[in-house]
TrEMBL record:
SMART domains: IG (SM00409), IGc2 (SM00408). Residues 510-521 have a biased composition (Acidic residues). This is Ig-like domain-containing protein. It comes from Oreochromis aureus (Israeli tilapia). It is found in: Membrane. GO terms for cellular component: cell-cell junction; plasma membrane. Keywords: Disulfide bond, Glycoprotein, Immunoglobulin domain, Membrane, Signal, Transmembrane, Transmembrane helix.
């Protein structure tokens, strides 16, 4: 039973009620009371609130009709000695205006009015949100993009007002929808993470002024369509590599694992591997799982590890006082290698300065040696190292001095003279034996005479080529003698690292093999 203090508001209500007779007895101001009771409640309607004098007799009327308590067989209505009316088991029909008239010992009348409301609820307020799944703590979750229907129902006698409100990260307590009736539902189409928060249904009974709330936390999960990202981070220690697997735009936090390791709940998972556990061609995988979707929806990223493979020209020659650039291309290495230039047997680390200029053009590492001197001659190493291992490109630099170029010219002239001389001798021999040989005899003579002369050169091709005097080809001659100049590398570069560079090397050789055509007299 809810007793509510007399209010001006109620005064208005009572004034508006046609069947209520405002009884005025001189000296007495009617006392007005509003009461609210639920069906079945025992309610006491007060009459003589002053309570000091026991009334001689009290009569209660409801809407102008007297309540005959004595003739009530159920004895639901009982008038107490102090004048109050007790209703044993209120029923909805008991709603109304009650008036008591007590006669006091001094023959005066005491009047009091009571407004009785019979109301109940709201009770059994229940909410349902679907589609959604409950977690162990009764919080619900749904997936982004779902159409979620929220329904609230409540029992209330006589009427009620239902309101759905939302409190999330960006809204404090927004009223979403409201209405009267036993239930209220609405749908959120294509639900987004911003709709994550607390949904509360408020059921308000305006008669009893009772409000009941039911609040539910709803989480909006989402899984990125994208794959996790596999990355590497090189450390100070070149034989170690840190792999990082990151799967963003996933809520709640996904489960990640590297290769066959255990799954860990994290957005990002690092693993450090060392040279001893890595091998060329090995594939490193990261598998990512949504916490709730499990293995069916798992995604992965991976990469295949590759040893470094620095490539370039193994033999370079240049003239003294010029600038020369050695190049080394590293495109294979995974993870990327640290590529440096080194010099000599000691493999001294080359740093950029006035003598050496280091530059990088895409994957091409360039070393420019400024104002080359004879001392710069020797071996250079393009040193490429990644966590899997180390590979080097060996480059031999030869420096031609102006005098050696001159020597080349002298040798060239000498050889040319030698060839011309031998040709003259052969011609003379052939001429002298012309009676002994027929047409077919020429072949024999050719064999004996060694028409094909191979010159073997171990020096730089460019300089040498320039130094060899070229006789103009004579097209009307009878026979041609071919002079082939081969270049044989002065050191053995045919190791594993430079094996692939052999086509380039061959190309160089072909250039060198420019035939020198001589006319046989
Ligand atoms: C109250 O009761 C007295 C005596 O029974 C009567 O005279 C009086 O008119 C009543 N007052 C009202 C407002 O009914
Ligand atoms: C009047 O009597 C009833 C029952 O006897 C009691 O419940 C009520 O409190 C009393 N009222 C006053 C004002 O004393
Ligand atoms: C109220 O009514 C019930 C039955 O309806 C009865 O058992 C009970 O005794 C009554 N109480 C009073 C105080 O009259
Ligand atoms: C009260 O009224 C009755 C009759 O209405 C009368 O007999 C009685 O004397 C009165 N008493 C007083 C004290 O006025
Ligand atoms: C409220 O729920 C309880 C238990 O579930 C049930 O006994 C009662 O009848 C319900 N009340 C209403 C008004 O529906
Ligand atoms: C319920 O559990 C989820 C997931 O563990 C958590 O995010 C949420 O805050 C919890 N809710 C409450 C009300 O404890
Ligand atoms: C938000 O509204 C609900 C229901 O209307 C209420 O239960 C809750 O206390 C309110 N919270 C705030 C912070 O206003
Ligand atoms: C209803 O109750 C609230 C507090 O619960 C109060 O602030 C408000 O004034 C009440 N309204 C009425 C009409 O009694
Ligand atoms: C993983 O490594 C990166 C880079 O070293 C670092 O920034 C990050 O905090 C690490 N993450 C974890 C979860 O350890
Ligand atoms: C890595 O992933 C590929 C392709 O998904 C798979 O073939 C391979 O077996 C995986 N390797 C490991 C070590 O899990
Ligand atoms: C060699 O390089 C230096 C430095 O870049 C430059 O000053 C010089 O002109 C270059 N010499 C030749 C011959 O290209
Ligand atoms: C190149 O080096 C030689 C010998 O060290 C030196 O005499 C000459 O001045 C240098 N030339 C340049 C352009 O630096």
């Amino acid at each position: 039973m809810k007793a509510v203090a007399t209010l001006a508001l109620l005064q208005l209500y009572i004034s508006a009620t046609a069947d209520l007779v405002t009884a005025e007895v001189s000296g007495n101001v009617p006392i007005e009371t509003a009461l609210s009771a639920s069906p079945g409640d025992i309610v006491v309607l007060p009459c003589y609130t002053a309570g000091k004098v026991t009334p001689l007799v009290t009569r209660w009327t409801k809407s102008g009709r007297e309540i005959v308590t004595g003739g009530d067989p159920t004895r639901r209505f009982i008038v107490s000695p102090n004048g109050s009316l007790k209703i044993n088991g209120t029923m909805p029909g008991d709603v109304g205006n009650y008036l008591c008239n007590s006669t006091l010992p001094d023959n005066s009348s005491f009047l009091a009015r009571v407004l009785l409301q019979v109301t109940s609820g709201p009770e059994n307020v229940s909410t349902s949100i679907s589609p959604a799944t409950a977690l162990s703590n009764r919080t619900l979750f749904t997936y982004r993009g779902s159409s979620v229907t929220l329904r609230c129902s409540s029992s209330s006698y006589s009427s009620q007002h239902l309101t759905w409100a939302f409190r999330g990260d960006s809204s404090s307590n927004d009223s979403l929808v409201s209405g009267s009736g036993s239930s209220l539902e609405f749908t959120i189409q294509d639900i987004q993470p911003s709709a994550q928060g607390f949904y509360s249904c408020r059921a308000h009974n305006p008669v009893s002024n009772v409000t009941v709330n039911s609040s539910t936390e709803l989480l909006v999960y989402y899984v990125s369509d994208r794959h996790p990202e596999c990355k590497w981070t090189l450390t100070q220690n070149t034989s170690l590599v840190q792999f990082t697997c990151t799967w963003l735009e996933v809520y709640p936090t996904p489960k990640l694992r590297w290769d066959m390791g255990p799954f860990q709940v994290a957005d990002s998972l690092n693993v450090t591997m060392s040279r001893s556990t890595l091998s060329d061609g090995q594939t490193v995988n990261c598998t990512a799982q949504d916490q709730h979707l499990g293995p069916e929806k798992e995604k992965s990223c991976s990469f295949t590890l590759k040893l470094p493979f620095p490539e370039g020209e193994p033999l370079v020659s240049t003239l003294e006082a010029s600038n020369v650039t050695l190049t080394c291309t590293e495109t294979t290495s995974k993870p990327p290698a640290i590529t440096t230039w080194r010099k000599g047997v000691q493999q001294d680390y080359i740093e950029s300065g006035s003598k050496y200029i280091l530059s990088l053009e895409g994957p091409v590492f360039k070393l420019t040696i400024v104002n080359v001197t004879k001392e710069d001659e020797g071996f250079y190493f393009c040193h490429s190292e990644n966590p899997l291992g180390l590979r080097e490109l060996e480059v031999e630099l030869t420096v031609k001095t102006a005098s050696s170029a001159y020597t080349g010219v002298v040798i060239g002239i000498f050889i040319a003279a030698l060839i011309v001389g031998s040709a003259v001798i052969i011609a003379k021999v052939v001429y002298n034996s012309r009676d002994r040989i027929c047409l077919g005899g020429f072949g024999q003579v050719d064999d004996d005479g060694g028409d094909v002369l191979s010159l073997v050169e171990s020096d730089d091709e460019q300089v040498f080529q320039d130094a060899v005097p070229r006789l103009p080809p004579i097209t009307n001659g009878h026979h041609t003698t071919l002079v082939q100049i081969h270049r044989i590398p002065s050191s053995d570069h045919e190791d594993a690292e430079t094996a692939d560079t052999s086509p380039q090397q061959q190309e160089d050789t072909v250039q060198t093999e420019e035939p020198v055509e001589l006319v046989e007299f």
